[in-house]
């Protein structure tokens, strides 16, 4: 089967799809990953076909998540800005989809939906966090009240916000594809009145499956491939730290981009150190200059790393 997976986002969004692609290829499928140029070499090193999607992870994360105040206007404006900045996206999505027998997309690859509809290609959605309405909580809005209809409604509000930000471009694309007009109330969760299979890349220990979800929704557990390697220059330092410390907390913010990461790291780290004198901390990031003001005892309890291999060390936390 010819499968195209859209992995548009940060390295953390891309990596699970890469793992899935390698597994699908090992089972005899032809796998194409449509993603940013920065991930091209990783795809090709894994013997997967690469298709370019314009943009880059830092711009996307910074504009829509990192430095955003998470307001409606910023979210809608950010989506519209990126879609208008890269007019070549239509041809890139179209090229990646033509000839595919199955399309898989993660959050920011949702626009592949319209090409799947046009070419009648089966579609699978996949997310790293709950993206289907539930009354338990709203993973998209922190002010939504848990275990209430408010959480449920907020999911639909977020769907509308996304549609508002992309509506102009989407209808331009759908006109080129010969499809009917889209509107802000239409859903990416169904196609031709059928629910789209949805895969969640997390374990139920993080969030239990809502019993009201239909059978098309699956919680699969974490997608990871132990053969995926990245050079860890701090291995000796990390091993030594684990030998001399028992109660260890890991702190990391992945690919998030904020204007003042230094202040954020300082607040989190100092809070943990004050919480319990027996706790030591492994922290990954880029700006640790605030450490200069810490006393030697606290410095000894902190390990600074650029990258840590979760497959190798997470069981120690």
Lay out the secondary structure.
Elements: E1 2-6, H1 11-26, E2 30-35, H2 40-45, E3 49-52, H3 57-66, H4 72-85, H5 89-97, E4 102-105, H6 112-119, E5 123-127, H7 149-177, E6 190-191, E7 194-195, E8 197-200, E9 217-219, H8 235-244, E10 248-251, H9 261-275, E11 280-284, H10 296-300, E12 302-305, H11 310-313
Parallel strand pairs: 1-2, 1-4, 2-3, 4-5, 5-8, 8-9, 10-11, 11-12
Antiparallel strand pairs: 6-7
Characterization of the model:
The chain is α/β, with parallel strands linked by helices and 317 residues long. The chain is 40% helix and 15% strand. The chain folds into 2 domains: 2-219, Glycogen Phosphorylase B (Rossmann fold); 235-316, no CATH class. Strand 10, helix 9 and strand 11 form a beta-alpha-beta unit. Helix 3 runs antiparallel to helix 4 and helix 4 (72-85) packs parallel to helix 7 (149-177). The radius of gyration is 21 Å and the shape is globular. The model has no long low-confidence stretch (mean pLDDT 86).
Shape verdict: globular
Overall SS class: alpha/beta
How far apart, in Å, are the first and last alpha carbons?
40 Å
CATH topology of the largest domain: Rossmann fold
Cα Rg: 21 Å
**Percent in strands:** 15-25%
Q: What do the pLDDT scores average to?
A: 86
Within the largest sheet, what's the order of strands?
3-2-1-4-5-8-9
CATH H level of the largest domain: which superfamily?
A: Glycogen Phosphorylase B
Low-pLDDT runs of 5+ residues are none
Query: What is the CATH architecture assignment of the largest domain?
Result: 3-Layer(aba) Sandwich
């Amino acid at each position: 089967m010819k499968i195209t997976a859209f992995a548009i986002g940060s390295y953390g969004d891309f990596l699970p799809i890469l793992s899935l692609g390698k597994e699908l290829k090992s089972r005899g499928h032809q796998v194409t990953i449509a993603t940013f140029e920065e991930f091209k070499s990783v795809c090709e090193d894994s013997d997967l076909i690469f298709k370019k999607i314009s943009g880059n992870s830092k711009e996307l994360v910074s504009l829509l998540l990192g430095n955003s105040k998470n307001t409606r206007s910023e979210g809608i404006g950010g989506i519209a800005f990126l879609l208008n900045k890269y007019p070549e996206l239509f041809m890139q999505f179209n090229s990646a989809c033509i000839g595919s027998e199955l399309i898989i997309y993660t959050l920011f690859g949702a626009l592949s939906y319209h090409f799947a509809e046009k070419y009648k290609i089966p579609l699978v959605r996949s997310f790293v966090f709950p993206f289907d309405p539930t009354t338990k909580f709203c993973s998209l809005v922190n002010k939504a009240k848990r275990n209430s209809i408010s959480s449920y409604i907020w999911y639909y509000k977020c769907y509308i916000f996304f549609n508002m930000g992309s509506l102009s471009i989407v209808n331009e694309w759908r006109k080129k594809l010969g499809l009917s007009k889209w509107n802000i109330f239409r859903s990416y969760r169904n196609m031709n009145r059928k629910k789209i299979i949805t895969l969640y890349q997390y374990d139920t220990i993080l969030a239990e499956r809502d019993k009201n979800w239909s059978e098309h929704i699956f919680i699969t557990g974490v997608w990871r491939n132990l053969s995926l390697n990245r050079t860890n220059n701090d291995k000796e330092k990390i091993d030594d730290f684990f030998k001399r410390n028992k109660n260890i907390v890991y702190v990391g913010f992945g690919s998030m981009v904020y204007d003042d990461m230094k202040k954020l790291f300082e607040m989190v780290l100092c809070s943990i150190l004050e919480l319990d004198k027996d706790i030591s901390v492994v922290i990954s990031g880029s700006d640790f200059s605030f450490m200069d003001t810490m006393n030697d005892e606290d410095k000894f309890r902190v390990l600074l790393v650029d990258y840590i291999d979760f497959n190798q060390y997470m069981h120690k936390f």
